[in-house]
Amino acid sequence: MSAPLEVDTSVMRRVGSDFDSAGDRMAGLQADAPLGDAAAAVPQLQTAAACNAARTTVATEMTKIAGSARTYGADLRSAADRYDATDETSGRAIDGVGIPGPR
């Protein structure tokens, strides 16, 4: 037999907020900026074109990663809300069941 399932929705909400914050920090990193600086330093070389192409890729991927972190955070908080609501509804339904007395 397995242990009972225990869900701490406050932890889910806290971790969800942590993912939101991480997404915000990642969005602000500007990880592509050094590639732009490198391209600007050697504009006449093919290296500049490669740096600019890489810069676009890095910027696009960082935007996706930051968005995914924020989405995951929102999903965790939403799951915690749904769990609490289901738990409360189920508890009320169980409380509403009449238990017959002894005969």
C-alpha-based Rg, rounded: 25 Å
Mean pLDDT: 93
Fraction of helical residues: over 70%
Bulk shape: rod-shaped
Share in β-strands: under 5%
The DSSP helix count reads: 3
Main β-sheet description: none
Element order: H for helix, E for strand? HHH
**What's the count of strands?**
0
Uncertain segments? none
Distance between the termini: 34 Å
Secondary-structure content class: mainly alpha
The gist of it:
With 103 residues, this protein is mostly helical. It has helices at residues 9-28, 33-41, 46-95. It has a domain at 31-87.
Written overview of the protein:
The chain is mainly alpha-helical and 103 residues long. The protein has a domain at 31-87. It has three helices and no strands. It has helices at 9-28, 33-41, 46-95. Helix 1 (9-28) packs antiparallel against helix 3 and helix 2 runs antiparallel to helix 3 (46-95). The model has no long low-confidence stretch (mean pLDDT 93).
Can you tag this structure with a few keywords?
mainly alpha; 103 residues; ESX-1 secretion-associated protein; 77% helix
